[in-house]
User: What shape does this take?
Amino acid sequence: VVAQKIVSKAEGRKVRLRDVKPGAEALRLAGDCQKDPRLVELILRESSEVLRCRPNLLIVVHRLGFVLANAGIDASNVDGKDGDETVLLLPQDPDESAARMRHAIERQTGAKVGVIVNDSFGRAWRLGTVGTAIGVAGLPAVADLRGRPDRNGRLLQSTEVGIADELAAAASSLMGQADEGRPVVHIRGFSISGEGRAADLLRPPQLDLFR
Amino acid sequence: VVAQKIVSKAEGRKVRLRDVKPGAEALRLAGDCQKDPRLVELILRESSEVLRCRPNLLIVVHRLGFVLANAGIDASNVDGKDGDETVLLLPQDPDESAARMRHAIERQTGAKVGVIVNDSFGRAWRLGTVGTAIGVAGLPAVADLRGRPDRNGRLLQSTEVGIADELAAAASSLMGQADEGRPVVHIRGFSISGEGRAADLLRPPQLDLFR
Assistant: This one.
């Protein structure tokens, strides 16, 4: 499991705010949500829809389909000190990033691995961020257990497990968020096969009751 | 981390549907969401508010504050075979359940432990359930990193981590949902101190933009 932050850095996704010129919509939203208009401009460029705008809070649908705050754009652990004003966007295509790492590891070591790129997301009804899968390669993202028996032989009706998100959260608890300097977590002994991608974890609009 | 299911069973939270008499509201909702009216009656008794009702889907605010489907009432891995119609409610007070287990373990072994009771929750915008903390004792539920430095010495502005949820998800990936028979996961080597409870993870109504 590889932290989004180092993937984004490796892929050159840093942007200096002084190079960003906010447009009219960014200027308008920036007032409503009390954010730097240049940051709002970047958020809008990375998003397909603005869901909520409140003081110091902007919840969007990212162009990759994730619902999250600030389009995942972040200034911590990026560069320099307070005032440096460099921010970091999500990778252009985190599934592709995961696939590249998977194949590079397999090529160089011969080991079969699954790779997850994770980021810390907030949740609608719960406080605190949790590690969440934004890129997946070499393992299922959602494990469909329908038809599997429970311990009494009763067949499960509808259990789909967000297994890549559970592993992303597990790794996140070890990565930390501050000065731990531990951006990769190696999970061993977890056997699962299949080919998923982060988009499998997105609830389609017709099943989304809370957007 | 202890699965809700065995805690509920140990606390006698099984209900036979044939012993439940649905009231008028349950009968009305049961039609809208195409569920057994007796099950809907139990869901209503366990809930403070119905948020969404769709065919085969009932999202409520549980009396403990959790937003979840069917008030966490479940029929898998409960008893007997298909048709037995016994369901299982969440523990009466999962924080208290966790605290009792914590103290019993400390009393019997001398070891200091934190205990999480976890359950599998769906999410607003993402498919697949993930393990989520519904009871916490002996560790923080939310870790507040505000004021901690990042690797560049920049102080974090607003990072609150749902650490008990991350650990609950980690454990859930090992517990499985079907016939694994692994309802307790022992996490070792994870050092964290503090006293939290599951309610710390609930987003207060004034910060909830999606209810």
About this structure: Chain A has five helices and ten strands.
